[in-house]
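Review form for a predicted model. The reviewer records the input and the model, then writes brief findings.
Reviewer: anonymous (R2)
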Amino acid sequence: MNAKLRIAVEDFRYLLSRGYKRERTLEIVGDRYLLDQTTRLVFYRAVYDEETARLHGSRLVGPEAVSDKRLSIDGYNVLITVESMLRKKPLILCDDGFIRDISAIHGKHRLTPYTEEALSLIFRFLTEVQPSEIRFFYDAQVSRSGELAALTRDIFSRFGLEGSAETARLADNEALAFGDILATSDAVLINRGRRLFDLAAEVARRNSPTQILPLSQL
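Model under review:
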């Protein structure tokens, strides 16, 4: 990270710590340092003030905590991050300890050959940690979400795991309501949840750790 970006990150954290809204902070810092759209997205998803980063991190549990627990999965969030890994896109280790992609395609997700491969990697990891029950939640508003849920249910049978996949208009609420632990890196859900597991991060660490970049390497 060059000197300009380091100062921009410091300013971003400072303004957040002073109570500025995230969108307004991005506008101020982005315009001040002439940040391009990709860099602005990185800042928006990865940079946090110290208090928020600590709060998020306190809710993050490791793989060992998932064993024999009911696991709720924020489907598109986890899937898109793993697909980004397969596409050789950078994954960012954020200030709060979560790993996030910078694809920004959630509502525009399309089924591709990467989709089934990503799901298979996710399920392969789940067979290691063995939750007692697993449920994927996909946003019904996204095109072909029903087809994706059906594909996910089919993969359950291949791996011999107990669980299901469903679509919902209020998928965030459904995901939060089910289970003991929620798998997501979405900041909105992190703020509402109590025990979070960064499932996509664990898949990435096992399959392509060199794609995970700390902010300092950007």
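Findings: The CA atoms of residues 70 and 179 lie 5 Å apart.
Further findings: The chain has a mean pLDDT of 96.
Recommendation: see findings above.
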